[in-house]
Amino acid sequence: MASSDISAARRNFLRLLAATPLASAVGVPAVLEALQQAKPLAKKKAAAPAAALAPKDNLITAASEAVDVMDFEAVARKNLLPAHWAYMATGVDDDATIKANHEGFSRYQLRMRPLVDFSRLDMSIQLLGRKWSTPIVLCPVASQKGFHTEGEKGTAKAARAKGHLMCLSNQTSTSVEDVNAARGEPVWFQLYARPDFASTTQIVKRAEAAGCPVLVWTVDLLGGSNRETLRRGEGPLSVRAPFCKECHEGRVQPMAQGLASVGNLERGAGPTVFTWDYIKRLRDVTNMKLFVKGIQTGEDAELGVKAGLDGLWVSNHGGRAGESLRPTIDSLPEVAAAVSGKIPIICDSGVRHGTDIFKALALGATAVGVGRPQVWSLAAFGQEGVEAMLDILRRELMMTMRQAGATSIDKITRASLIDRLRIG
Ligand SMILES: Cc1cc2nc3c(=O)[nH]c(=O)nc-3n(C[C@H](O)[C@H](O)[C@H](O)COP(=O)(O)O)c2cc1C
Questions:
Q1: 370-389, pLDDT tens digit by residue?
Q2: Which of 139, 168, 291, 375 for mutating ligand 1's site (highest number of atoms within 8 Å of CB)?
């Protein structure tokens, strides 16, 4: 074997190892250190998706070096197996809704108002009777041990250290009980309804027994999702490395222990049809407060209010559900108008800066969620990375509030925004 092939093989081996439970046995830092020293894959040898996902130069080497949340992205790209990277990065079809989500924020300009006394700036919010020191929420993100061996516990500890609301994914790679222990209090729990109501009920009751105060039912994947980037990144089953089997074959996710296997709840439309009457069914089996995640129109917001939901989550799943090309920041105003303050609204998708959070709050969100920045920072530096990512967003939001003369969250209103599409 030529030496470049040996390096490439070694590097591939180490990348695989770093993402498996084996890494914790031999020590992740040791694996990552060896990974850093391994020569990069020769470009001509890389498969097309891996080449497209090649690391950038000048990566940050410590969480504290990050200037904005995107700085974590390149490090995550370097650390992750191509298939795991593709799972995170994927949208649907041409990934155009991901782009639209972020670009959507540039539709709005900010009207800055200096010379306001911001010495007692208050970023706290009230959400279902509970005070949070910041409106920044950690969205449900599946399979976090695939991004870092600390997995959901690393995220939960960061949420605890920085005082943020965390919503745990149904597809968590760590049990809700263990995550709650790491968070120091129960997290919110996100649900993917299963085809049979009995096993859905079991998951819901388990989350409730663990103390989770809020159930978030995600509805935007019920029609399936055409994740092309994921499929290209993971490649055909036949070429997967033997290591992949360890996590992907025969292992039952913590929240599905003891339940019948139902296939991939994130990917395909199941045989069951779900409609608004499912809210009542969920209500009948739990006393947890209930949100629906994946609302994008005023009509559905009205139906949600009528169905007695405790809150709505405006989301297009970070562009990983349907290729609507419609950023959630454009969906938010019609949802907020329909809700008219009756219940809280969380909004996510494409949020990368404090100014994005400010704009969502101005357009009617009670709180604002981040998905991929969580994965990037976790994959880059574990808990420390997530903490740094949260610090950056919080600092940016604080600065924007000062600049715009909004000294508390309720003072962030539409008056601070100019909608560029309405000019002229
Ligand atoms: C890797 C990944 C896994 C996700 N897993 C879930 C999930 O299990 N349940 C869910 O409701 N949303 C899930 N989401 C969507 C997020 O909760 C959130 O809506 C979205 O990531 C926000 O967009 P952003 O990534 O642009 O911040 C996932 C997103 C990503 C990137």
A1: 999 999 999 999 999 999 99
A2: 139
